[in-house]
Amino acid sequence: MRIGDVDDGSTVTDFLPAERARGITIQSAAITFNWPPLADPAEDSRILQAVQKQALPRSALSHRINLIDTPGHADFTFEVRRSLRILDGAVCVLDGVAGVEAQTEQVWNQAADWKIPRIAYVNKLDREGAAFGQTVREIGVRLNGWPAVCQVPWFEGGRGKFCGVADVVNLCGMKYEAGGDGKVIERFNLPQLQREEPALAEELTKARAALVELLSEHDEIMVDAFLEAEEDHLAITPAQLLASIRRCLMPGDAKVIPVFAGASFRNIGVQPILDAVNDLLPSPRERPHAEVSINESTGRLDELLEGNMVAQGSTPSKSGKKVEAAVPAMDKMLKGCALAFKVVNDARKGMLVYIRVYSGTIDRNALLYNTNLKQSERATNLLRMYANESVPVQSLDAGQIGVIAGSKYARTGDTLIACNTNKATPPAPLDRLQLRPIHVPPPVFFASIEPNSLKDEKDMHDKLNLLLREDPSLHITQDEDTGQTLISGMGELHLEIARDRLVGDLKANATMGKIAIGYRETLTQTSSPNTRMFDSSARGDVKGKAGCTATAEPNSPDVLDEDYHDDAFRFEQDQNVVVVEAPSLDKRGRPLNDDAVSLPGHLTLSEVQTAFTNGALAALARGPAFSFPLRNIKVVLNIDPAKHIFGSETSYASLTAAARLATISAFREVHSAGGSALMEPVMNVDIAVDDASMGSIIQDVSSSRGGQIVSLGDNEEAEAEQQSSARNVDVGKIYAPKDPFEFGASASLGQQINKPRTVKAKVPLKEMVGYLKHLRSMTGGRGTFTMSVDRFEKMTGQREKALIAELRGGA
To answer: Does the bond joining 624 to the residue before it have cis omega, within 30 degrees of 0?
Structure first.
């Protein structure tokens, strides 16, 4: 194993060419290693006995660690989301100069959704302007938890070069060799520090007292230990402190956040943070069982295995309600259960499916059933990954992360199960088992992809499919009018990387057009009822004959519907509502009066409602003006069996086609009367800048870019303190060691002037294209921003006229 460097592009986990060229992490990478390195078996046995007697910490015993390095850029949020859900613990790496950045808060909150125990590591303390104490306070304010300082930075002479760390738990100092690889460490106990570094020793004792006091507020066992030690903070043993921190971490609510210090570039503090992973973070066996779902029922994996899970039936009873039934114990039937959380196409090994095993064992050559795709395939090749290198293994046990090489079907988010039978399809309800589903956020940027020649078109689409298996947050659509293939993503950088992967790595002969914005269309008027008939005699693509009547109108999400029949079927998606009415039929599709006609025997009311809904959704995907998807629309579809159903001639597909034609007709009627409008995405933007640049940034956003300032940097700390008050995190009570520049008044004044601020604003997405380069030029390269979709807003006036002229000019 070698030591890599981000600046040199030689890190083990950043192995893609684009990652090494840009110096950032783009895709998550998995690596498995032992820490500490394995000793001889006799030594391991002696260490194990010492650990069990608490004579040595857990970190003295070698543990197998499955590490996943995730991106930090906002464009790759989905990459972080799909990795977080399979983790048992996390280390949040912070920049000691920038502090807690806006994207850090986003990822921290995502980890909170899965209740993942987290520790914080303040990195880059060797850089000019690094502020460990200030970052600790920001952790309390912005991450809404109590920082438990477990290490204090060691600066030569109190304000010189960063040379090591002081361990608050073990009351010792670790000084690293200047310019070394981090392996040569000079250790000092507390008496030695008191003689040679009295200021550091005094800070270390303050930190120990603060740590014990903080743990005593959240852990009753620590209170008892403190009293037994006659209220002497220094008499608490390291084993007692580590056990108390673990108890505070296990719930995953981040009430207490252990904080460590270091400078990875100079290999300072790396071994202690790895020891902290072993000492503090939970093993897979100590974590709650994974959430599972069967149909609409949810529970825990252990409940399913033990027969304590109750699931709703897939078919309703005569009363129309779904029947609940106990699921029989599946522990003898289920041999292994895993989640495919990432798919990567490797030029040498083929398609690599990264899996996390949650129960049992996945063996080599095991028959795996994909519950999402309803397909089976064999795991012919199991690997344990070391970034882009691999080692074959015979099996993967619960809690382990590995790779299935050469999978033909598995995608990100698929659940894979192995049963103790040789049947291709497992018994119910295992065939419907879902592990931890994940929501894919909607894309906001898109660009056209065109093959260089007609003969390259099939190859391009094949490689686009490979790209989609790797990254489900990318979307591929086909423009029916122009025939163009459109690729959509989360941001400019996201699409640039997708282009690099497609053209550079997958060698597709294609060209990506200019990055554009995904606008929406909406209606401002209500249409009259539009009836359209579909007849396969006039169209050969779909067989059957059916009709539908559709009415389209603007939808206000805040207004409740009270005008429609109680039994009307409703479906909502992307602020659109589809209502399917059958006023002449009851819930079973039977006529309500003598004049009404019932549905034919091969169709049920539920099937007709679903067919009509799918037809309306297909129509909503393309607006009447510029073929953008429609939003804030209500479509009302009417079923009249006497007029719309033609016995055995009417099929599910023909009903869908009729509903689509009727809905499109209603949209075109409103558009021709001038009742349509364009909508643009408006983003929530968090811009992190320093005080010196804040004024120009605010003016640029509010004046040049038509944005609305939500809160200024002056209110940021007050807002964060108010947010953290729910947990009673009093910033004044947070212990944080002094930073080197705090010793001088001028340095303290400089800190006040250049204090980081966050400007929150709502800005149209069009104005944010290319904003990162502009922001960096305005802030000397120090400004960063994150953004997410807030809403789609109707365009009016000059902005709409300019966009229409641009769209028509480009057409």
So the answer is: no
User: What tokens does 706 get?
Assistant: 């038509």
Residue percentage of the chain with pLDDT more than 70: 84
**Sign of the four-CA dihedral 592, 596, 600, 605:** negative
> Residues near 184 by Cβ (< 8 Å), separated by ≥ 6?
176, 177
Q: Is 640 annotated for ligand binding?
A: no
Report cis status (omega within 30 of 0) of the bond before 437.
no
Q: How many angstroms separate the CA atoms of 428 and 304, rounded?
A: 12
| 738 carries a ligand binding annotation | no
Q: What does each C-alpha distance from 740 to 122, 487, 744, 751 come to in angstroms?
A: 15, 49, 8, 11
417-469 residue pLDDT tens: 999 877 778 887 888 888 876 666 667 677 888 898 888 989 999 989 888 88
Higher model confidence: residue 215 or residue 769? 215
What's the rounded Cα separation, in Å, for the pair 511 and 666?
37
pLDDT tens digit string along 578-601? 999 887 777 666 666 666 677 888
pLDDT in tens, 617-639: 999 998 998 888 999 999 999 98
647 in a labelled binding site = no
Average pLDDT on 647-653 reads: 88
224 is in an annotated binding site: no
Q: Half-sphere exposure of 602 toward its Cβ, with a 13 Å CA cutoff? A: 8
Pairing relationship of beta strands 90-95 and 118-123 according to DSSP bridges:
parallel
Bridge pairing between strands 756-764 and 172-176: unpaired
Q: 541 pLDDT band (50/70/90 cuts)? A: low
Q: Which amino acid is at 507?
A: K
Q: Greater confidence, 517 or 377?
A: 377
Q: What's the half-sphere exposure (Cβ side, CA atoms, 13 Å) at 117? A: 22
Q: Please list the residues that pair with 151 across neighbouring strands.
A: 167
Please give the CATH architecture assigned to the domain spanning 525-674: 2-Layer Sandwich (3.30)
- The tokens of 87 are what? 């983790």
77 is in an annotated binding site: no
Residue 348 dihedral angles phi and psi, to the nearest 5° = -95, -40
- Residue whose token pair is 């091969």: 602
Contacts of 491 (CB under 8 A, 6+ apart): 74, 75, 444, 445
Question: Residue 534: what residue type?
Answer: F
With vertex at residue 44, the alpha carbon angle to CA 42 and CA 49, rounded to the nearest 5 degrees, is: 100
The CATH fold of domain 445-517: Alpha-Beta Plaits (3.30.70)
List the beta strands (DSSP E) in 592-730.
Answer: 633-638, 676-690, 708-711
> What residue segments make up the domains of the chain, in order of their start?
89-280, 291-435, 445-517, 525-674, 680-713+743-810
CATH code for the structural domain at 680-713+743-810: 3.30.70.240
- 73 assigned binding-site residue: yes
Instruction: Tell me the mean pLDDT in the region 380-392.
Output: 83
Two structure tokens written together for 432: 């419907």
CATH architecture of 291-435: Beta Barrel (2.40)
pLDDT in tens, 669-717: 999 999 999 999 898 888 888 777 888 899 999 988 888 999 875 544 4
Annotated binding residue at 71?
Answer: yes
Please answer whether residues 577 and 634 qualify as being in contact, where contact means their C-beta atoms are separated by less than 8 angstroms.
Answer: yes
Name the pairing type of β-strands 516-517 and 445-451: antiparallel
CA–CA distance, 631 with 184 (Å, rounded to integer):
62
- CA distance linking residue 355 with residue 459, whole number of Å: 28
pLDDT at 113: 85
Q: May I ask the CATH architecture of the domain 89-280?
A: 3-Layer(aba) Sandwich (3.40)
Instruction: Map residue 217 onto helix, strand or coil.
Output: helix
Tell me the pLDDT tens digit for each residue of 92-125: 999 999 888 877 887 898 889 889 999 999 999 9
Residue 709 and residue 698 in contact, taking contact as beta carbons nearer than 8 Å: yes
Q: Which of 256, 251, 170, 172 is nearest to 216 (CA)?
A: 256
Q: What is the DSSP string of 760-783?
A: EEEEEGGGGTTHHHHHHHHHTT--
- Identify the pLDDT of residue 752: 41
